[in-house]
Structures are given as structure tokens and as C-alpha cells.
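Posting this for the archive.
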Amino acid sequence: ILLVKHWGPVSGGHLAAAIDVFAEDLDEQNALNDRILSRAVYAAEVLKGDLDLLSSFSMSPPMVTFPFDPAVFYGTTYAEHRTRFEAFVNHHGVPIDRAHCLNGPTALTVSDFVEKHRVDLLVVGSVYKDAIDRLFLGSTAETLIHELECDIWLVKPASFLGTLSRLVNLPALRERARLQQALQPATEERELETST
């Protein structure tokens, strides 16, 4: 899904791709991260722009008492995030000066990076969350869409069509779209006749 916020020249510019290397379902997320980066690389080649890769570590140190040192837990978790990000960067041959491991809430750190570096197109993943998950976890992609002025390319997981087909009658939706397209020229002709 490409959300174009400003119409303008379609060459050059600065692109960024944001990935999540610390998701619960790491296999599914790694596949989505690969999709995000491949689309971002494609866009950078087509637009002849430069590309930065972002990942944000957004875990806050625990504020409650645990039988372990929260600072050690936080440090260990942050080190694991960096290790995973660096492994992804190395695996995909991303230049080290174009790889940025951010620290803080994801929507905030990505927004700050995009604004500071004047990113024209942000490529980011978007996974399906039910209403309960969204209530408690929020949606980083949705927050970015509302906060950022740049164009945004939302990349869905490969499983998205399967999820969508369980929620929506896709054949009926396609037929409805086909009928609307077929009726549109006739409607435009009638409007043109009425205005003349």
C-alpha cells in the first residue's frame, strides 16, 4: 500500500526502511523484514535515491521489582537487539553508515529520524492486529501515517491475503470493483453531457 502525501518529482530523494528485529514471531518477522528491504531497495533504484535502514529498540527498563537487576536485563536485551540488527545488516550487505539502530519508542524515533534526515519515502511493515491487540499495543504504522509528512509504503506479510480472505469476501469485492469501473465511463459521459 503506497500512501502518497505530496505530489512532486519522482526521482532522487532520500528513502528509509524500518524493520523490527525483535518481534515475537521471529521467522514471520524476518520474512517481512526481507520484503520491506527488497521493496525499499527497488524503490531506491527506480527513484535513484539513497536508502537508510532503521530499527528501533523500544523496551523501557522495568519499573517493578524483579528477582534480577533490571539494568542488566535491559542491557542484555538491548545487546541482543543490536546483534540481530547487525546480523540482518551484514546478511543483506547494507553499508554500515546507512544502518541505524535507534533507541526509544519506535514511532517516535522513526518519526524523528525521518524529519531530521528529510526522508521522502518511508518503507515500513504493517501486520494485522485484532481490536484487542491494537487497544493494548497500538499500531506503529498507523501512528507514523498520521504523524509524518513523507510518502509511506506499507508492506504487508506474505500471509496477509490469507488473513484478508478470512475477513472479507475477496471475489465479491473484486466483482464490485469491476462493475464500478465498467459503470464509471458511462457516468462520466452523462456528467459531461449535462455540463455542456
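The longest strand covers residues 50-57. The chain has a mean pLDDT of 81.
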